[in-house]
Amino acid sequence: MAEVWREIVAEWKGEIAFIGQNAAGATVQMGTLGDQPGISPMELLLMGVAGCTGMDIASILAKKREPLDALKVKVRGKRAETYPMIYTEIEILYLLWGDGLDPKAVEQAIQLSEEKYCSASAMMRGVAQIRSTYQILPPGAAEA
User: Fold this and answer.
1) pLDDT (0 to 100) of residue 70
2) Does 61 lie in the same domain as 24?
């Protein structure tokens, strides 16, 4: 497999704010600029886990023709008390909406993503204990 390089450019915007941009032009604000709060670098690590696993799970379930209507990933992390300030524990809650979603298919998709496909999850597993749970909700239902 060919090596793939990714590039992000982060530009300082004053105060403690940087704007990060990828080659496609998508941007994210890190830190606070004036009265506009952004995402901290530590939160970006959690966002990477949430986005990566969420995309994997949705893709896996679509390939299995599971009736997934919506998916939300909630991630929270407990930071270490000493330097380097990295997470020691990460909790992931997957909320899946769909009528007739097979719990075994959901569990398999989560396991494949967290342990095999998602590089952000693999990276964080090296430094933090990761626990995940999921809930299957009927279409249109409010979060439990």
Assistant:
1) 95
2) no
Amino acid at 7: E
Q: For residue 67, what pLDDT is reported? A: 95
Q: pTM, whole model, 2 decimals?
A: 0.86
Q: What is the CATH number of the domain that holds 103?
A: 3.30.300.20
| pLDDT averaged over 10-residue windows placed end to end, the chain, 144 residues | 82 85 89 85 89 95 96 92 81 95 97 90 86 94 83
Spell 63-100 as b/e; 16+ CB within 10 A means b: eeebebeebebebebeeeeeeeeebeebebbbbbbbee
Peptide bond into 139 cis (omega under 30): no
Give the bridge partners for 135, in sequence order: 95
Provide the residue range defining the domain that includes 95. 41-137
Q: Return d(Cα 95, Cα 79) in angstroms, integer.
A: 24
Number of separate domains in the chain = 2
Q: Given the structure tokens 């998709």, which residue do they identify?
A: 109
Q: How far is CA 71 from CA 36, 58, 113, 136, in A?
A: 28, 7, 14, 9
